[in-house]
Design a protein that fits this description.
CATH architecture of the largest domain in chain A: Up-down Bundle
Largest interface: A-B, 144 and 144 residues
Radius of gyration of chain A: 28 Å
Oligomer: homodimer
Shape of chain A: globular
CATH superfamily of the largest domain in chain A: Butyryl-CoA Dehydrogenase, subunit A, domain 3
Low-confidence stretches of chain A: 1-17, 479-491
Mean pLDDT of chain A: 92
Helix content of chain A: 40-55%
CATH class of the largest domain in chain A: Mainly Alpha
Chain lengths: 680, 680
């Protein structure tokens, strides 16, 4: 994908290093103890899936229309322009290639986007699906063809300046006027201005607007309305619609996240999505049958975010670990050549636990996706029984995985030293594009507290003698086993080399921390504060309990995955990774394990020692383990993470294409520096 | 500083909220229990200093030449252009105003820059100072006037593509040719290309180049050379000089960090800086008297970085805490109005420990600066005795403070929810501008290991019976008090409400972790590995020991500062902050304190409980404590951090100025979307 500049390619030829594979990275691959290709199949879910994925990826990679300048060299307006262009091309190409399966579309777009975004993202991810699920028959007939033919370019306008995660607080109003049979939409306060929706600023001509429905003098809460924003002919904003871009952000440069201020905008009655709730012509409100229906979508999106956490971390590890295998620096033994930086224990300690985490989250994402599809089947048959648990789990896991993955990306970036700070490493882009997941689709702390609410409720049920099932069934054991233990009572049951034993330890930690949080609430209540204040005054403990619960689930799922793997070499290396993941979590949270009496001080020293051994044990397989993620160079778009390991010559080449190098002398010299010199 | 667009200012007037102070934030200020102004004086170092700082700041703020568009709205080339323009203006203005004291220049530039950078930064910070200290008399006479008049615009070219922190590995060569009495400079490999120096790409016409000196067939290591890069008349690069911008980065958009490839560039013999080392006309090398001289500069720069860690965190806390006082969200008690988000315990737990850290680092920065100046006096009198300790301490503290501050800035940003992700919050800029401190001036892990080397050396000296003095004197106690203790032996000496007792506890933790690291090395040596491998195989423990040492120093210095404060109200609130800082550190590292037997499990529960009380206790003073940092709105440049708390109306106004809003319909609609619609 790199367009060689004349100067650099000749430089590369002169030094005749251009086409050769870096010998360091070749040696790493030769030393691997397992079959990389087979592991890739496991990650993809089967050999056929790997094959099809690669076919689709090569469609994009080999397509001359998609060879373009690095987005980092463009201004924001140019980047937006490029995103719209590619989105338009992509829609036509997907039709040409006959790709229509959602997984395959996702795969196609993943390459195409690199770390960047499409202009019509929310049209496909939110606007169309909402039409599919919330239109009644007549509405479906009208709107779906308009949306599918992109005559109606849509987005989903929920978040306002004043309210995000707390949906009930949204202030936009839709007031029914029976005289004209219209809804009148308004942004009554400055905080009610819609803010953040992707594609709202410049791209969309329609939006599904979430607004408080008022009819017959009564407010019936949030409902969804189709609001035309711009003329379908001229794209000029319609009267009463104040719409625009919210300005530059940390990342997402090419996306026109927008604002929308509605000033007495009138829409026909049947622009309210009426599959469930209705407003009749006279203004009578008919309420929907169940409120739980929207849970499903949230669960699905959160499971996708967990999957993205795995992917973002996998990409970051690929870059940092490959670079660490070709970067030589300083010395371990005097007089010897500079070692690969991956030989430093501190570097291994930064990167290998993150590598293990990337694998863990990938497996958790797969699990959540399976459960979602199974439960969706149940829901369609009217069985909502598993939904609360899954909803609670998805909230916590979304928060747990996005927090750790975000931090992990930055650790990977800094593990690449100064060059990690260059946009050519791709790591800044991975970070700024991923880190908003900590905030959107439910702010992480709020998510953790949602999971905690479920845990405390379950704990109380168990305490009251109810038998819990599912993932929280461990709380059944509370009464018997969770007696306060002195740390000096050394448990001999934990075997730090046995993953099953560690899963059990994580489980008991979660149980104890849930109990601790419940007791904190109890203690507050004894001070005669209200339930609500007692909850808020225990929030630190509640988040800690949720965190421990999620950590347990991740370790458990990682261990469970090992049971599915037949290949000995792969089973062995993944077992090492899983053990590393579990033990590093124990070391990081050693206070919890000591405080709850689950581990003794000597055991903790053993954990530290064992961790060092595991790092050394993983060292020869590190590059192979990131290779197995199978991100091609075009998807990584990182000079440091190149498969061939030839980073320096390509960094030089990349730099020479920087816009500031278009002229030898920048105009600012003539404008400011020369006149300044004359004055001094 | 905000240029109001017509539409928004009328919107603001209509809602008549424009000029009023947000009542929430006013109430916060009324509830403070101490005198903010007096605390500002303490932070500045005296009432006179506060006065003078404000005078200087107002010179910039009131200067119409410095009212300009938000840099976030400009392309990179425009930003570079703006930076050069402002740098040029500033130089003239500083002369006009007669500001020449380095502290006052720093202050002037701090406002001017906001979070951004000057184009000639390295000219003043590295080029000129190096000329001052390393030129011999003749060189001084020639170069200093050229540099002071900016005829010679200089930078400092040390880092190469292949080597950063490990200076000995630098590959650029300067080979003396006695025939012409010139040095011939070369970049012999691709990794030897100079990479990263600020101002190197487009601005500078000279650089001080660090290169391996070869003469009479022998290499004498790194020396500094003045290398002309561009014509002083035309600014065109000179023959053999391949120079340019290294391309876009995570931040520092307006800086032209550069590359420099030298191809047989010849410079006269006396372009080598010869105050200490020399090469005579015939090529004879004369070595410098002492190698320790450069330590001083490193210590100074690292003390400045610690100070910047305090400032970056102080700014971030100012923004996040002010915003948390005006942002209302969700509910604690049903039916009541939405609370300020600062009322949530989780929000307090995110922000208040960081506020305490900002104060801690500010005091540590002040201390290091004082020590530096004291020791510089000693050095000038030939006394180097304290230098190794200060050098080691400055390395560790630089790493310790920059890591935690970087993480803290992101915590502040995310504590502002979605709006923290907008560039209008200023938090993304603070982060990307600060986070490179983790890498430059010595990569943090390497710095931690440098401090560890000093600690282990000191520990061994103490073990051998030498009496240590200074900050590591606590290692003297090793033999007596650091016997392994069972965790069940509950120490009763620690009083968690007494700061002095906590300082002692931190000290013992450091002592134990240094001992643990030393024992790990010992254990490795018993396996018959070499000293160097034993060191590398214990690196995790060594970093942990350094971290504990630095943490001890910070807690100790914070406690010591309290002793200087007479005002009761301020003493009280700072004591609460210091206690919060110390206890939160214990909670975060509870495993260490339990493992070393310094705290018992019940004590740890008390710590958790006490922490919650301290959060509640600080709540009424939070806004006042950030006000005391006294960053004016122009310096913060943050919509969320405004002193008046009127965030939403200004966010809307800021967004409307986004370049994407220059036209109602973006050209990409006509170029791509309309044609696409026609095809479907």
């Amino acid at each position: 994908m790199f367009l060689l500049s004349q100067a650099t390619s000749s430089f590369a030829r002169e030094n005749s290093i251009y086409f050769a594979m870096n010998p360091d990275i070749t040696r790493e691959r030769e030393n691997a103890t397992f079959n990389v290709e087979k592991l890739t199949h496991i990650l993809d879910g089967g050999i056929e899936k790997t094959k099809r994925r690669r076919e689709i990826e090569s469609l994009v990679i080999s397509d001359p229309d998609f060879q373009s300048e690095d987005l980092n060299f463009l201004s924001r307006s140019e980047r937006y322009d490029a995103a719209v262009k590619k989105s338009a091309q992509m829609i036509l190409k997907l039709r040409e290639h006959g790709i229509s399966d959602p997984e395959e579309i996702y795969c196609y777009k993943s390459v195409f986007r690199g770390h960047h975004h499409e202009a019509l993202g929310l049209h496909f991810v939110m606007f169309l699906p909402t039409l599919y699920t919330q239109c009644n028959k007549e509405q479906f007939k009208k709107w779906v063809p308009l949306a599918e033919s992109l005559k109606a370019l849509g987005t989903y306008a929920q978040t306002e300046m004043g309210h995000g995660t707390h949906l009930r607080g949204l202030e936009t109003t839709a007031t029914y006027d029976p005289a004209t049979q219209e809804f009148v939409l308004n942004s009554p306060t400055i905080t009610s201005i819609k803010w953040w929706p992707g594609g709202l600023g410049k791209t969309s001509n329609h939006a599904i607007v979430l607004a408080q429905l008022h009819t017959q003098g009564k407010c019936h809460g949030l409902h969804a309305f189709i609001v035309p924003l711009r003329s379908m002919n001229t794209h000029i904003p319609l009267p009463g619609v104040v719409v625009g871009d919210i300005g530059p952000k940390f990342g997402f440069d090419e996306v026109d996240n927008g604002y929308l201020k509605l000033e007495n905008v009138r829409i026909p009655r049947d622009y309210m999505l009426m599959k469930y709730a209705k407003v009749e012509a006279d203004g009578t409100y008919v309420k929907p049958p169940s409120a739980k229906l929207t849970y499903g979508t949230m669960v699905f999106i959160r499971s996708m975010i967990v999957r993205e956490a795995g992917r973002a971390l996998a990409k970051s590890c690929t870059i940092a670990i490959r670079y660490s295998s070709v970067r030589h620096q300083s010395e371990i033994r005097p007089g010897e050549p500079e070692p690969q930086i991956m030989d430093y224990q501190t570097q291994q300690y930064k990167l290998f636990p993150l590598l293990a985490t990337a694998y863990a989250y990938t497996f958790v994402g797969q699990y959540m996706n399976q459960v979602y599809h199974r439960i969706t089947g149940d829901i369609n048959q009217g069985d909502f029984s598993e939904l609360p648990e899954l909803h609670a789990l998805s909230a916590g896991l979304k928060a747990f995985t996005t927090w750790t993955a975000s931090e992990g990306i930055e650790v990977c970036r800094m593990a690449c030293g100064g060059h990690g700070y260059s946009r050519c490493s791709a790591l800044p882009d991975i970070y700024v594009n991923f880190v908003p997941t900590c905030t959107y689709e439910g702010e992480n702390t709020v998510m953790m507290l949602q999971t905690a609410r479920f845990l405390i409720k379950s704990y109380r049920q168990a305490s009251a003698g109810h038998q819990l099932s599912g993932i929280v069934s461990y709380l059944n054991e509370s009464e018997g086993r969770l007696q306060p233990q002195s740390v000096s009572t050394r448990p001999t049951v934990v075997n730090i080399n046995d993953l099953a034993s560690l899963v059990e330890t994580y489980k008991l930690r979660a149980a104890k921390l849930v109990e601790l949080a419940a007791k904190s609430i109890q203690l507050e209540l004894q001070k005669r504060v209200s339930q609500e204040d007692a909850w808020n005054n225990s929030a630190i403990d509640l988040v800690r309990a949720s965190d421990a619960h999620c950590h347990y689930v991740v370790v458990k799922l990682f261990a469970a995955k090992l049971g599915e793997i037949g290949d000995t070499g792969i089973h062995s290396v993944l077992s090492t990774l899983a053990l590393l993941y579990a033990l590093q979590g124990i070391q990081q949270h050693s206070g919890d394990f000591l405080q709850t009496g689950l581990l003794s001080v000597p055991q903790l020293s053993q954990v530290s020692q064992r961790l060092k051994e595991l790092l050394a044990q993983l060292r020869p397989n590190a590059v192979a383990l990131v290779d197995a993620f199978d991100y091609c160079d075009e998807m990584l778009n990182s000079v440091l993470g190149r498969y061939d390991g030839n980073v320096y010559e390509h960094m030089f080449e990349w730099a020479r294409r920087s816009p500031l190098n278009k002229t030898e002398v920048h105009e600012s010299y003539h404008k400011y520096l020369k006149p300044l010199q004359a004055k001094l």
